[in-house]
Every structure is written in C-alpha cells, then in structure tokens.
Amino acid sequence: MSHLVLVIGSGGREHAICWKLSQSPKIAKIYALPGSHGIQQVDKCLNLDAQTLDPKDFEAIAKWSKENQISLVVVGPEDPLALGLGDVLQNHGIACFGPGKQGAQIEADKKWAKDFMLRHGIPTARYESFTDTEKAKAFIKSAPYPALVVKAAGLAAGKGVVVAANVDEACQAVDEILGQLKYGQAGSTLVVEELIEGEEVSVLAFTDGKGVRDHKRLGNGDTGPNTGGMGAYCPCPLISQPALELVQNAVLERAVQGLVKERITYQGVLYAGLMLTRDGPRVILPLLETDLFEVMQACCTGQLDKVPLQWRNGVSAVGVILASAGYPETSTKGCLIAGLPAANSPTQLVFHSGLAVNAKKEALTNGGRVLIAIALDGSLKEAAAKATKLAGSITFSGSGAQYRTDIAQKAIKIATAGSPGLSYKDSGVDIDAGDALVQRIKPLSRGTQRPGVLGGLGGFGGLFRIKELNYQEPATQGVGAKIHLALEHELYENVGYDLFALAANDLLELGAEPVAFLDYIACGKLHVPLAAQLVKGMADGCRDARCALVGGETAEMPSLYAPGQHDMAGYCVGIVEQSRILPRFDLYQPGDLLVGLPSSGLHCAGFNEILTQLAALKLLPHLQKGDEIKAVSHVTHGLLNDVLRLLPEGYETTLDFGAVPVPKIFGWLSGKLKLSAQALLERHNCGIGMVLILPQSRAKVLGVLQRRSKTSGSPVQVRNFVEQLQKVASPFGGLGERELPEELKELSSKLSVAPPREDHYEDPILILGTDGVGTKLKIAQQTNRNASVGIDLVAMCVNDILCNGAEPLSFSSYYACGHWQEELAKEVLSGVQEASHSAALPLLYGPQVYDLAGFALGIAERSGILPLLDEIQPGDVLIGLPSSGVHSNGFSLVHAVLKRVGLGLDDKAPFSEKTLGEELLVPTKIYVQALSSLLSRGNHGIKALAHITGGGLSENIPRVLRKDLAVRLDANKYQLPPVFAWLASAGNISSTELQRTYNCGLGMILVVAPTEVEAVLKELRYAQRAAVVGEVIARKDTKKPQVLVQNFEASLARTQKMLSLPRKRVAVLISGTGSNLQALIEASRDSAQGVHAEIVLVISNKPAVLGLERATRAGVPSLVISHKDFASREVYDAELTRNLKAARVDLVCLAGFMRVLSAPFVREWRGRLINIHPSLLPKYPGLHVQRQALEAGEKESGCTVHFVDEGVDTGAILVQAAVPILPDDDEDSLTQRIHKAEHWAFPRALALLASGAVRLGPDGSQ
C-alpha cells in the first residue's frame, strides 16, 4: 500500500526527516507544511504554501489530512506540539508522530519538566524556579551549590539558556531573561539550575545503545553563548554500555512510567535528559537502516517492540551547523550562500534550517542556524574532518558564516587516548641515528685536518683561518643520479670521493687550492653504516687534496625519498692569490694550445646512463707556479659546453681527435644506447677530464687557439671524433643517431669570486654552513607555492653561521629535480641570492618534485668567533628571539599529524584564519640583520648564539654549552605559537618530544652577560620582540638534560584553551596615519604572535587619511563617521556604538583617535575599550607629552596601553614600554622612537586581552 505523509515544519530536522522518509518504498508522497527549498528538492516531497493550508490552523490541518487520506503526520517543531496540534490530530483519528500538549511540556516548560523529574525520582541537577528577579539573584548568590545555569522556562528557540562563568554573569542573565524579557513570555518564569561539569550526551529512547552528543555552545571547546545546537556526531564513545543501561533504567523507563502514571500520552521520540535535541535527528537518521516510516507507525500504534531497529555498523556521522553572523543574539538574513553541493550523496549531506531563495533562485540566509553539513565515514575522525571541510567550503556573503571546527574532537581524543602519541621517530626521522652518525664520522673528519682548521664537527658551522690570504672561492656541484647506481652496486666510498672531486676540480678552474669541504646528504631512511661509508669516501678525497672536511648536514626525509634512496651535494672552499685567479683571458694569444687531460671514464655528468669512477687531483702544483697555465676547464657538462667556457669573444678552436684516442667505454655507450657522436660531445667528457690553455709547446694537443674568422656557427669545431668513435663503437653495434634531452641547467654564472674583505679584518676566519629545507618542500610542491622555500634555504644556512659570529659573505644553492621546469626553478630560487646549479635527476625525482641544499660562506674576526665556551657561567641570561612558526624542521612529523587528523593543506588551519598550507609555508626567520649590528661592536656581551633548528630546544642549546652547564627556560616569558599547541593536541605529541623536535617559539637564543642584558634588549626588544626567557645554571648531574623548560605544560594548555575560544572581533578607531593600526593588523595575521583576534572594522572621524588606505590595502572594512555631522558627542558616540554592534565587535582599540569619548560610550564598552598613550602613565596624561618630558629633564619616556575609563588617561594599565631619552633628542626624534615601542606594546596588549589573560576587574583594576 502506498502511503501519504504530512511533515510539519521547515527546518533542518524536517529536511532530514523528509529525506529519510522518502527512502521508504511504502510512501508515495510526502507533503511538507510549509516546507523549504531544500525539502522541495527531495524525491517524493511537495511543499504546501500558506494559501493551501495555514500551519497555525490545527483544525484545518486535521481536516485537510482527513480529506487527503494522510496516513501519518510528523510534527517536527516544538511550538505546534506545545500548542496542542498532536491532540487535535489524535481527536480526529489521525496518527501523529509527536506528543500531545501535556507530553510536550517536557520540552515546552522547563519548570514543569524539572518538577516532573523530581516527582518521579529521575536524576536531575538541583534547581529553583522564580518569577522575581531579585529573589532569583539572591538565590544565585547564596545557593549551597554553583547556581550558574539560568534558563527561560518556556520555548526560546534553543537560545534561552545561559551557562554562566560566575555569579555576576548569572545575575546579568536573570536581568536579561526575566527582567527585560529578552525572550518574551518564554522567560516570564525562570529556572536557576546547578552547574554540573561533564559531557552532554543525548540518548534516544528507542535505540539499542546508539548515542548522539549535542554540541550547543557557539564556539570551539564548548565556549561562547548557548545555542540551539552547533553540531552533533554519532555513535558516541563518551557514554559506556553500563552508563547506557543506567540511563535506560533510571531515566527513560522512569520517565515513561511517570507519564503513564500521570495519564499523559507520549508518542514519538523521548531523549535522556528529557530534551528533544535539535541536531540529533539530522545526524543519526543517515545511520538508520530500518524504514523510518515503519518505526514512526509503530510508535503511533504501540507496536514498537515488533519493529527491529537496524543501524549501519562501522559508520560514523558528524554534522556541523553553519550559523549566520550575529547568532544566537540576532540573525543575518539575505546573505548570498555560495558553495552548496549540487546534490546530496551517500556520504555527504547538507540539510537546510534557515535558507531561502530569491527570484534568481539564489540561496540566501534566512535565520540563525542556516545549514547543517553532514559527512559519513568509517572513521569518526575522518567523518569529522570531512564535515568540517564541507562546512568550510560553503560561504555566506557579508559578515560570513559561523561554524565550529571541533565537533567530535572530545570523542576522538577519548578514542585515541589509549594509543601512543606521535613522535619524530614515528614519522621516519631518527634523531638518535643522526647523533650516532656524527660520533662515527668525527674521526674521519679529524683525519683530514690541516693548518687553518678551527674546532671540529658538532657546531653550527665549520671554521677555517685565512690569515694573510686575500680571497677564497666557493664552488658547489651535485653528484647527479650516479648516487642511485652506486648504491645498487654498493660503491658507497667511491661516490663520496666523486662528490668531493667534482667540487674541488671546479675550484681548479680558478687556480684555487681546496682548503675546506662541506657535504649534504639527503635520504629516505638514515642507515648509519652506509652514510659513514659515503663520508669516508669524501674524507679520502679530502686527504688526497689536503683539504679539510669541516662539517656537513644529513637530512632524513621519508616523504621525499623512499628507503634506500639518497642524494648528495658538496661545497668546497678554496684560496688563491688575487694575481693568480684564472682564467687569464688577458694573456691569451693565437696559437695557444688546448691540452686535454684524460678522464678516468664518464665521471659524474651524464650518469643517468652509466657509472664509473674519478681519479685524484694532480694539477694544483702546476697552477701554483704562476703563468704556466692560462685557463682550466673541468669537463662536467659535456666536452663542447666546457670548452666553450674557455673561449672569450673573438676566439675559436677546432678539437682534433686525430691523435687523441677515444676510450672504449664511449664506443660501448654509443652502441648500446644508439647515441650520436654529437650527443656524446654535448653530454660527456669523451675521454677528456680537463682542458688546459697553455702557451705553445711540444705537448700533445687537443686543439689550437685562433682568432675567430666568422661570427656565425659555433666557435668550437670538432674533427676526427666520429672516425675514432666508429672504431670503438663497432663491436657494440656501431654509432647511433639518438640525441639526449637537456639535463643540466644553469641560472647564472658557475662560479664567483668573493669580494676582498681584508680592509677591516686583521685575522679573518672563514665560516661554512650547509642545510636544506627538509620535507617542508613537499608542502610547497603540493600547494604549488614554491617562492618561499628559497628564503628558508638561505635562512637555515646563514642563521647557522651567524651562531659563530659570521658576517655572511656568499651563498650557493643546489637544486635537483626530475624534470626541468624553468619557471618553477626561478620561483624556488627567487629567495636565493647567489649562483646555483640545477641538476636534473630522473632516477630520483618525479615531475614537480625537487630537493634543495644550501651552502653559506661567512667571515668573522678571530676575536669575534662564537661561542665563548670558557666564558659562559651560571647566572648568564638567555634572551630569546621569536620564531615565525615551524621554520624548516620537524615537517615529517607535521605530515604524520596531518595524516592522523585527516586534514589537507588547502583546509583552514585550526589555529588561524589562513589555510594549513599558507601557515606551514611561512618562511624561516633570518636573524642576520637583527644581530649583525650588535655583533660588529666590541664588548657586545653576547657569549653564544644557538639557532633552534633540527633537534629543537633540547638538542641545539647544548651545542653552545660546556658539559658542566645547563639552562633553565621559562615558557611563561615567551609566546608559544599556536601551531605547536595544535600539533601537540592533534598528534598527541608529548611536551618532551615537542621540545626535542621544534623551536617552540624561539628561533634564536642569545647567551648574554647579566651586565649587558639591558643594552642588548635596547636593540632587540621592540624591533625583534626579544625577551629574557631564562638563565644558565650549573649542571650538577651530567646524566640529566641540559635544557629544562619550566611552565611548558601550563603554556601549552593555555594556548590550547585559547584556540578553543572564538577569535575576538576588533574594531580600530583612528584619525590619522594609522601606523598603530598597521601594527595591529600585521600582528593579528601573524599566528606565531598568538594574537587571538581579527581586525574586522576601521572607523575614522576624518576622511582621506592614510589609515583608511592601510585598511583598504589589508582588506579590512572601513567607515568614515565624521563628528561634524552630529549635534553632540553623545549622539556621535551612539552612532559609533551602532556600527560597532552591527559588525559584532568584541573589542575596540583607539589608535590615534583624536576624540574625547562620552561617558555612555565608555560605560557601554567598559573592559573592552583600550587606548595607547605616548608616555609612561600616570606621568604626562593628555597632549604634548614629549614636550613636557623633555622640558622636565626626564631620562625616560615611552608608551602605555590602558583600559579607557571616564577620566583622561586614567584607566588600568595593560602594557608599558620604556624608551630612553637621548641627550640630543627633540620632540620629533623621541616621538619616532616611541612609535617603534608602540608597535610592540599595542599588539602585545591586544593579545593579552583577546586571550583572556587580563581583564578589567569590578573595581577598575587590571
């Protein structure tokens, strides 16, 4: 039989019910009164408009149902049930799913419901009811329990409940609900209830143990005003089976028995707690496999026991409510909705609660709670992530949508509490293995030492003394895909030797003696014995060339490299007399000879085809004799390419292989791969490892230098090569015609000579550093945002050498990729400042994938070398420079966390307004400019610098400490960036692991003598947000850690709690340039600063001021409200308040707002209104304060951020920043320096206020 059903209502609950009923084969048509746009789209559904049937005329509804043979009426909203619709339908013999008027009192009258529970022994919170405000407030103040839950007894659309934080808030709620009848007659009777801590869980009376938890608070973490519900999920692990049985026995069964005793008929759904939740049905219905029509019919006929309820097993559903701006206090209607899915799917649903359509069929907001976005998945965590992502993809025009990002997170935490937290090792990076490798290769490094080397491995940089020598020349070269073939054949030492030889041979082109070498090894999994063999090969090469192996970097990157995959890059520094720098083009003469030194095989260029080895260096003694050799070219890019580099304009040559034999290996290569002679000449050395330009002699020559006779064609010609090659290729099938794709690219010059620096260095020390960007590269590649990683690369290297007191001199980068894309490479290298080579490695890298390594060369006076290990003593002070976020370490763990929580890089970051990709790609902070001025001064008082890089706080600070010392940090003295709080929470990462992996907010640590702390802070406090963060202490037990971080857990918990709160909406009032406005905007958008607020409105009382332009550039809405247009201050300020409330502003900052505010305005915004004043209050309130300070002979001025009260600059102080008055200061110079202090102080004060760390007390104190 085909049934007809009538559903009363138009909200999301009714949309979900219609959607589920439409799946019943027993239903032919579903009528909805009045229905909605969403319901109309559901199969079998038809809306009834008011002209057809009045939703408020119950008799008419009953009559229409009779006439149209309606089998079942389902009543969704509470109001019609409370007014008796169920009784009217039952009196006419129409089945109604929903209670009569008496039964509906359970939801409609909270006082009646509480009394009912008391009568029948159903557990409930203690309470009292009131109709008098004074009696209610007196009870709240004197109750023997925390009477902080204030409820309107009647129906208030889910908004008539206030869960107060304290007595004052509860009393305020009484005044609003009962005194002012904020919710109309629903609040004429008030229930004041005991606050019970715990989780709110809704249990359906007819379930077999399925639960729905109803998220009713507006903000993340169950904060903010109470609402009709902001989301739900099921099943719910928060309630155990024994607890469910207790609910059934002590609540549900007693409730049913009580209803029977009181002769109340209740047909429908009864919930534990006797509350009909609003979001529960929407989320649970997708999991119901039983025909909902059969269940509802059985409820109405008393035959529910005959209908077995079946639920989908192994599936979770999560729903996230999208509410309009202003909800729950108001609702914003008419905002255009974009991003709605075209249709619901089996795993993704959107139900409409407050949505309308205009004449253009565009969706508009039409209420407080507008939509619910639901996702289904086998994992609750994945369902929550997908529902949140779906909600985030839907936007409302104007002030936007509100939705929570933490639905189901408590349940997910409980579900994963038993599982171990993530660690860096879990993500594939083993710090202990890295430490073991360092210990293993230290003897290899010591074996290469030569005069000039200072220190050893383990520091931030390698040091080399160059006293009395003027120039040094860095060179970098990648080893190409040879490493892949070498690993297959276990030729580890050979390839390490090759890496050194390539870089050192490049130096010979400049006539330079190699003196110091750094290596960079990247791998998927660090195998210590294998890596040690690679380093041994490098050390062997260094010993042969009398070059010191002074340091290196090993990067374990499991998400970029597979286990067993490696790549390497090397960096060699050479020294040469200025008069002997090659090439000497000025000495060239026609008839000079090109002499070829034989290669040992293919060398490393072109090693995507084959593997061989490289001979040791023998040329250096000849170079050091003077003018015997005019130029050298190391053949690594193909013979033709490298000979061409020897020829200045106006010269040409012909390479003659008539007397130069071609090694057989090139015949084999040509025959097997069918390569042409031209391909070999362009890509391989063809048996020539180096080409020299010599004066005429009797040497066997490769070619003769000639003046160029024509401008067209190549200046390098070749003869007799094809003939020679044919002979050696014939046993292998003869010559081929195959050409090879271009494999090597050069974005700028191969080598560069460092400028002379001897003019101000008496005993210069070269400082070398190398690093990479790690798996942060993967985020750049996946988001196609590659511009900033070049900055990261430079930062990681120069920050390291800065720790040795170096002034950066030059930088070189290594860029390796699978497929050359010039625009991508230019984007990546835009942040890199010196020449780089880019080697394409098809065997290692796929398209769009690349790796980076950087090498920095710095210079410092020997007397300025850091750390001063012997001078560091207990009592020395630690000054911290803040990081910009994660920087470039620990990203393998970041990837593991993202995988665990199911978030993508394009998803909104849970700790900011940006996407995760944008946040995680914030560049590493470079500290050179911040510290170079200080380090250049004598007696600066800085004893050590520690760059907090891989290994975090725990591993990097000890690099500048003796074994008898430790440090004690205080986490309360610096800001923990919210990204780390989120990582800790999402990945269940322990505090110890967090400190061992990440910088935790401190990018650079300075160890400073106590007497110099103020002088250092004078330079760094305001410009760099530096702060004293700890001290050096004696280490009595050498088995204990050298880094102790106090209050870290408290700081972590505080930041995590802040993230659970809604971001404060801030308005800034200005009259002029708005420099402080700019500081507030920048700080609020820099998540690392922890300013949990957003600037949503700028108001100026003057048109066309610079501050308005700043707001426009930042995309912040702005208004000009001129005081000249209003009759009085009070009227003007009332207009300000109206606009502030319309923008839902929480806090107001006065930033150069040149108006005296009226008393009503100040009272309205009490505790939420702050100002910045350019003096150290209480001194010099009012105007012209710098003039007053100078005239009074003050030694110090500054600025103060304070709450605004009705006096002149008399409000409670939040933050002060002192600025010394210099002897030659005038008003302008002093004002400019105070501005810098203001740009530090104002954001700091806003951060404190927005996070709730400070608030204005009842007595006006802070």
From TrEMBL:
Indicate yes or no for the key word NADP.
Answer: no
Which reactions are catalysed by this chain? 5-phospho-beta-D-ribosylamine + glycine + ATP = N(1)-(5-phospho-beta-D-ribosyl)glycinamide + ADP + phosphate + H(+); 2-formamido-N(1)-(5-O-phospho-beta-D-ribosyl)acetamidine + ATP = 5-amino-1-(5-phospho-beta-D-ribosyl)imidazole + ADP + phosphate + H(+); N(1)-(5-phospho-beta-D-ribosyl)glycinamide + (6R)-10-formyltetrahydrofolate = N(2)-formyl-N(1)-(5-phospho-beta-D-ribosyl)glycinamide + (6S)-5,6,7,8-tetrahydrofolate + H(+)
Residues annotated as transmembrane: none
For this protein, what is any one GO molecular function term?
Answer: phosphoribosylamine-glycine ligase activity
Name a GO CC annotation attached to this entry: cytosol
- Name the InterPro entries on file: ATP-grasp (IPR011761), ATP_grasp_subdomain_1 (IPR013815), Formyl_transf_N (IPR002376), Formyl_transf_N_sf (IPR036477), GART (IPR004607), GART_AS (IPR001555), PreATP-grasp_dom_sf (IPR016185), PRibGlycinamid_synth_ATP-grasp (IPR020561)
- Per UniProt, residues of the ATP-grasp domain are 114-326
Name the Pfam families for this protein: AIRS, AIRS_C, Formyl_trans_N, GARS_A, GARS_C, GARS_N
Give the residues annotated as coiled coil: none
Instruction: Give EC number(s), comma-separated.
Output: 6.3.4.13, 6.3.3.1, 2.1.2.2
Q: Which controlled-vocabulary keywords does the entry list?
A: ATP-binding, Ligase, Manganese, Metal-binding, Multifunctional enzyme, Nucleotide-binding, Purine biosynthesis, Transferase
* GO annotation (BP), single: adenine biosynthetic process
Which pathway is recorded for this entry? Purine metabolism; IMP biosynthesis via de novo pathway; 5-amino-1-(5-phospho-D-ribosyl)imidazole from N(2)-formyl-N(1)-(5-phospho-D-ribosyl)glycinamide: step 2/2; Purine metabolism; IMP biosynthesis via de novo pathway; N(1)-(5-phospho-D-ribosyl)glycinamide from 5-phospho-alpha-D-ribose 1-diphosphate: step 2/2; Purine metabolism; IMP biosynthesis via de novo pathway; N(2)-formyl-N(1)-(5-phospho-D-ribosyl)glycinamide from N(1)-(5-phospho-D-ribosyl)glycinamide (10-formyl THF route): step 1/1
| The keyword Nucleotide-binding appears for this protein | yes
Family annotation (Gene3D superfamilies): 3.40.50.20, ATP-grasp fold, A domain (3.30.1490.20), ATP-grasp fold, B domain (3.30.470.20), Formyl transferase, N-terminal domain (3.40.50.170), Phosphoribosylglycinamide synthetase, C-terminal domain (3.90.600.10), PurM-like C-terminal domain (3.90.650.10), PurM-like, N-terminal domain (3.30.1330.10)
Q: Which HAMAP family match?
A: AIRS (MF_00741), PurN (MF_01930)
Q: Which family does the similarity line name?
A: In the C-terminal section; belongs to the GART family. In the central section; belongs to the AIR synthase family.
Q: What is this protein called?
A: Trifunctional purine biosynthetic protein adenosine-3
What organism does the record attribute this protein to?
Drosophila gunungcola
